[in-house]
Specification:
The structure is a homodimer. With about 325 residues, chain A is of the alpha+beta class. Chain A contains ten helices and twelve strands. In chain A, α2 runs parallel beside α4 and α3 packs parallel to α4. Chains A and B meet through α1, α2, β2, β3 and β4 of A and α1, α2, β2, β3 and β4 of B. β3 of chain A pairs antiparallel with β2 of chain B, so a sheet runs across the interface. Chains A, B: It comes from Nocardioides abyssi.
Chain lengths: ~325, ~325
């Protein structure tokens, strides 16, 4: 049974204080056996048996990456963990340890921070990763800073290995979170399955290693938009990529959203992020089960290396998200 | 010779764009030979020869941890790196790799971000550490999120090993940054040596390993205030600590500030942070050169474990900084 909530209803961060909150947060995070020194010292100490670590970091800012009225603290915790765990997945590795920094206004409810931590811990538990350290400070808006450490059991899959003749393949649901975000942005709460997909992405945490073992030549996770991520692969690999519209099965709820909002439902699939599906390239004979071939890698054409086309032509819709 | 600045004078983050800035920032960060995959992929990959990593994370928020009118971008970069490198120093280890997340308003000058990165890189170079990854996003105020990885060549020194009969010892200048912050807060820019100490701390990066090799029983770096950090050691170790006023040589510029502001100059030493001096406990016969004995570890008295006294009595001044 979960412990009762430790703070009075409505208590703010200012009410409970930094050290009171840190004590409760630390209690939420369980430590794996690889954690030699956990939270509470100047640094954590982690056993590393593989001879290397894989490391990535991400920021999430309130009002930009999430809104507290659109998602609970627990949801935001799940999303923050998921997008970082997914970065290790996209290398073909597995996350083992995370640190999390939380900057927040003094009038934030302490309960929100606890809910956030629980969602974060629950998402990490899906891959067996431990939250080994963190920081807590005051800011005008909520900012979540996560760093994830992991390891690969085979060679890491980089963005730069795609070769002409490879196929582009996708694993995991794609466009769902973008559809959910679109309806939330217009004040709706349904289709519920899409809203939930936005609030709690379900990255295919086992697919990265499978792809690496199958010889994926390049890989990335779709956080900012499928075509934008394809362009990152193409650019890093010095190739061009053509995506085929007809390769995508657009899920029924996206058709409903497209009809309601007057948008092409495929635009959520091609331009949407936040689901943390995996996009990878393989030799045509080497595509593992569960991956859908959605395009081809070609020699760079007139548009140069990094160009991404859709059915052989430039795409005129949004390809992804930019931060400035 | 340094490369010329790549952006037109006054260009903002919005003007140069996320990817334009990331390209220039990445150019600033040189990679050590342990970096197998550097910035630009979903994650970095680092060689680890020691069988473990030491990891810590910190947030710095504009208006709370720094002000852009009090310190240049380069200064803030130095400070952000120093406070993280110091956390590894306080374990008796050495930093090898850092990630840095920068959240900033769209109208921030791109030059500030470049200056920040240069200061950050220069500070990391003092210990031979590489900046291996990062994230850049938009926020209402500047927030810097740093995670540092490192390694120990002897057993990490925790906060929890102090024993009654040990002495408390300090290495590095202490109170200087607090004096500098106090004069800046009142609109002055001198004594310059204190203002510079606040803008660019000079942590004793070699002292942590020396202390570990000498058998330090506990250690912490002074980021939030000497008495507050002593209380962390006492609390984690289940002991009490008495600090001796007469053990500190108060530097001349702090006397000047004390006189000008009507404050006890020793209060900057006892309550000030930000210099990232090291505070450690040793057996009385085991204090290494360069460390000043400033107190004693005792059995917990009536005030219980974690109590810190000054000359045997409770201290009534500020002991350190709290975040909420």
């Amino acid at each position: 049974m979960a412990a009762p909530d430790p703070f009075p209803a409505g208590a703010t961060l200012a009410d409970v204080g930094e050290f009171g909150l840190i004590g409760e947060l630390t209690r939420i995070f369980e430590q794996g056996e690889h954690v030699l020194v956990g939270p509470g010292d100047d640094a954590a100490v982690l056993r590393v048996r593989t001879g290397h670590v894989v490391v990535s970091t991400d920021l999430m800012v309130e009002g930009r990456h999430f809104r507290r009225e659109w998602a609970s603290g627990e949801d935001v915790g799940h999303r923050a963990a998921a997008q970082n765990l997914s970065d290790i997945n996209a290398m073909g590795g597995r996350a083992t340890s995370l640190t999390v920094g939380l900057a927040a206004p003094a009038d934030l409810e302490a309960q929100w921070a606890l809910d956030f931590a629980r969602g974060f811990a629950d998402e990490c538990a899906l891959v067996g990763a431990s939250v080994v350290g963190g920081d807590l400070t005051r800011a005008d808006q909520v900012v979540v800073a996560v760093t994830v450490l992991g390891a690969c059991t085979v060679s890491p899959v980089l963005r730069s290995g795609a070769r002409p003749g490879d196929v582009l393949a996708l694993h995991g649901r794609q466009g769902w979170a973008a559809g959910g975000l679109a309806v939330l942005g217009r004040g709706f709460r349904s289709p519920r399955v899409l809203v939930e997909a936005y609030r709690r992405p379900a990255p295919p945490y086992d697919a990265g290693l499978v792809a690496a073992e199958a010889g994926a030549t390049s890989m990335i996770d779709v956080s900012d938009g499928l075509l934008a991520e394809a362009a990152h692969l193409a650019s890093a690999s010095g190739v061009a990529i053509d995506v085929r519209r007809g390769a995508f099965e657009v899920p029924e709820p996206l058709h409903a959203v497209g009809a309601a909002l007057g948008a092409d439902p495929l635009s959520f699939v091609l331009g949407g992020g936040d689901d943390h599906a995996l996009l990878a390239t393989f030799e045509p004979s080497g595509v593992p089960d569960g991956w859908a071939v959605v395009g081809e890698v070609t020699e760079p054409g007139d548009a140069g290396a990094g160009a991404v086309t859709v059915d052989g032509a430039p795409y005129d819709g949004p390809t992804g998200w930019t931060h400035f």
